[in-house]
Design goal:
Blueprint (H helix, E strand, L loop, with lengths): L4 E3 L8 E3 H17 L4 E5 L4 H12 L7 H5 L7 H4 L5 E8 L7 H6 L5 E2 L8 H22 L7 E4 L7 H7 L4 E2 L5 E2 L7 E8 L18 H5 L5 E3 L2 E2 L5 H7 L9 H4 L2 E3 L3 H4 L26 H5 L3 H7 L9 H15 L4 H11 L6 H21 L9 H13 L5
Parallel strand pairs: 5-12
Antiparallel strand pairs: 1-2, 3-4, 4-9, 6-9, 7-8, 10-11
Helix pairs in contact: 1-6, 14-16, 15-16
The structure holds cobalamin and iron/sulfur cluster (2 copies).
């Protein structure tokens, strides 16, 4: 092998690409990535060994809660080459999801509306991104075949497999790890999904960018449930995203009042982040919020039958939680809404439905109690339904993210 060539792994015999050819291919991959709708593509090696101890500590503390899949694969999550033998590079890809007219502040201000994380109002990103990454892999394959390199081996991932997507994105130069643990970039903020293409070509790697949180701690201070237990560390069991999407059982009572009107996920740690002031809007119309989920009225969402739920959430990530957890979450938000006889009536009616299970029933009973307590107290002093933290988040959005307020 000459100095200017790099041999492929044993799994990809016979051909070599020169260093120049690999550099040209890397540039081409970035161009194809843009054409396929990715806002940023970076390349990194597969060494995540420096993250293994942090991942193990996170698991040992039980921060993954009931997400058994986080612990099931051992350290494979930090070892892409074990997950996909022969893989020596990871192409990390970013796709922006922030929809136009996000209406963050108006949604959080009105406790009679349900708040749905802005990543989830449109089409489910998993399939869309995986298909685009597959196309990227196919383009690379064709290109290599034209250069007589056979056996290009690639595998796309989006969230679905045991792989540490954020540390990989950080190494590939897509951004730094914020104190909320998400990846963010000075020009792009953090409203983006990550996906990867694991590949067996020795492409040149990119350089990580400098950390930029400095002394800011806004996300840590604003988290409604104090889930960011230390900089860069989220205790999922406290995170509203986990409580409303991942947790299959009852939401612990201590968190219910803190959830406010957030019925699917939570964006607060990103809403107060100054880096999001410059975040671009998505170019994918598929990620635009569906009209039925735009600033939706809680009582109307609560009235959806299972059939309506399944049809109106078809193709969206929300459908994955199913009608039962959907009702559980909305019941909590209704309990947190201002005192209202119509809400109590709707809760009581729902409780009478024949197919209502124990889980939803218990949350409905909790919500009715909250409503009745507020009604009783209202004669003496009106209760403001927004927590101080939420009021602060709303002011921060109005000031820092006026376009998206
Ligand atoms: C499990 C999971 C969750 C859990 C746990 C969150 C968590 N922080 O781990 C829950 C359900 C709570 C969750 C919530 C959300 N998630 Co999530 N989630 C995942 C998933 C599947 C795995 C994450 C993971 O491995 N966690 C385990 C911990 C240990 O890993 P880690 O946080 O990356 O920690 C590493 C670093 O922080 C680092 N580290 C530790 N200490 C230190 C210290 C320093 C100084 C530094 C620099 C680093 C560092 O080492 C750790 C180990 O490697 C990923 C997809 C994937 N496969 O990676 C999506 C993912 C992280 N989620 C994503 C999103 C969008 C969200 C939400 C915003 C959704 C929402 N709006 O509701 C919230 C945000 C909450 C938050 N602040 O994290 C995106 C993030 C995109 C981005 N810009 O970074 C991902 C990448 C999905 C995707 N494909 O786009 N999520
Ligand atoms: S998503 Fe919400 S609950 Fe979870 S860490 Fe961020 S602010 Fe806290
Ligand atoms: S809010 Fe501040 S500390 Fe948190 S991620 Fe953004 S810049 Fe970093």
């Amino acid at each position: 092998m000459s100095e200017s060539t790099v041999s492929l792994m044993p799994q990809m015999p016979h051909s070599v690409l020169s260093v120049n050819q690999l550099a040209k291919l890397a540039r081409q991959i970035k161009q194809w990535g843009k054409e396929l709708g990715f806002a940023h593509i970076g390349i990194t090696d597969v060494d995540l060994s420096e993250h293994e101890a942090d991942l193990q500590a996170w698991l040992d503390k039980g921060y993954h809660g009931d997400m058994g899949y986080m612990a099931n694969h051992g350290m494979m999550r930090a070892r892409p080459a074990e997950l996909h033998p022969g893989c020596i590079r990871v192409i990390s890809a970013r796709m922006d999801y922030l929809p136009p007219d996000a209406g963050f502040a108006s949604n959080l201000t009105d406790p009679n509306l349900g708040y749905i994380s802005r990543y989830a109002g449109g089409r489910d990103y998993h399939k869309l991104m995986r298909q685009r990454l597959k196309k990227l892999g196919e383009k690379i394959d064709v290109y290599c075949k034209e250069l007589d390199v056979d056996h290009t081996d690639f595998r796309p991932f989006v969230d679905s497999a045991p792989i540490l997507e954020r540390p990989l994105a950080e190494k590939a130069g897509l951004g730094w790890t914020g104190k909320h643990s998400l990846i963010l970039h000075p020009d792009a903020g953090s409203w983006f999904f990550l996906g990867e293409l694991l590949i067996n070509l020795p492409l040149p790697t990119d350089i990580p960018i400098a950390e930029g949180c400095n002394t800011c701690v806004a996300c840590i201070k604003s988290c409604p449930t104090d889930a960011i237990v230390a900089p860069y560390v989220v205790d999922a069991r406290r995170c509203i995203s986990y409580l409303t999407i991942e947790l299959q059982t009852a939401i612990p009572e201590e968190f219910r009042p803190l959830i406010g009107n957030r019925i699917y996920g939570c964006d607060d740690c990103q809403l107060v982040c100054p880096v999001n002031a410059k975040a671009p809007l998505t170019k994918e119309t598929d990620f635009y919020t569906r009209p039925t989920l735009l600033q939706p009225d809680l009582l109307s969402l609560f009235s959806w039958s299972e059939k309506t739920f399944l049809s109106l959430t078809e193709g969206s990530a929300i459908r994955r939680i199913g009608h039962t957890l959907w009702l559980r979450n909305i019941a909590v938000a209704l309990g947190n809404a201002p005192a209202n006889l119509n809400i109590i009536e709707a809760l009581q009616q729902k409780a009478l439905e024949a197919d209502i299970g124990e889980l939803v029933l218990e949350h409905i009973e909790w919500a009715i109690k909250q409503q009745q307590a507020k009604l009783a107290a209202q004669d003496i002093h009106p209760i403001t339904p927004l927590s101080r933290k939420t009021q602060r988040v709303i002011r921060s959005i109005q000031k820092g993210l006026p376009r998206d307020a």
